[in-house]
């Protein structure tokens, strides 16, 4: 008799590869973002999509504050069309980053969600900044 973990068979390897490749095309994690800023090539713009007040209190180092409601075609035209944006908000309980990624995609821009957001960053034991950095 199967147990709850194996009751539904696992996906075939080729289906698993397709699934996880698609999933990773939409997201990155705090550790990878931290590694990029710690010495690897930073080839994305990190956007904190929370309110300016929350951003000023604490944010991920290297982030620019740009709430999703401010992401207009005019505002985003300040960056090249081939810019990759990595977006985050408070954490798994917040869908602000999802709204930002959706808005960016509707504007024809590429975006990835930094899963975990501020909560994930803290869980990794990574440092925060507290000085305000405005979007360009």
UniProtKB/TrEMBL annotation:
The species this protein was found in: Rhizobium hidalgonense
Domain of life the protein comes from: Bacteria
UniProt name for this protein: Sulfurtransferase
Residues annotated as domain Rhodanese: 40-130
Pfam families: Rhodanese (PF00581)
């Amino acid at each position: 008799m199967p147990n709850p973990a194996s009751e539904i068979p696992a996906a075939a390897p080729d289906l698993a590869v397709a699934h996880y490749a698609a999933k990773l095309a939409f997201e990155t994690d705090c550790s990878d973002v931290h590694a990029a800023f710690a010495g690897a090539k930073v080839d994305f713009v990190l956007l904190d999509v929370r309110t300016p007040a929350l951003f000023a209190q604490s944010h991920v180092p290297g982030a620019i504050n740009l709430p999703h409601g401010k992401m207009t075609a005019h505002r985003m035209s300040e960056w090249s069309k081939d810019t990759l944006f990595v977006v985050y908000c408070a954490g798994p309980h917040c869908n602000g980053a999802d709204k930002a990624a959706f808005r960016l995609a509707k504007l024809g821009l590429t975006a990835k969600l930094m899963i975990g957001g501020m909560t994930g960053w803290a869980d990794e034991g990574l440092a925060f900044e507290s000085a305000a950095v405005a979007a360009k």
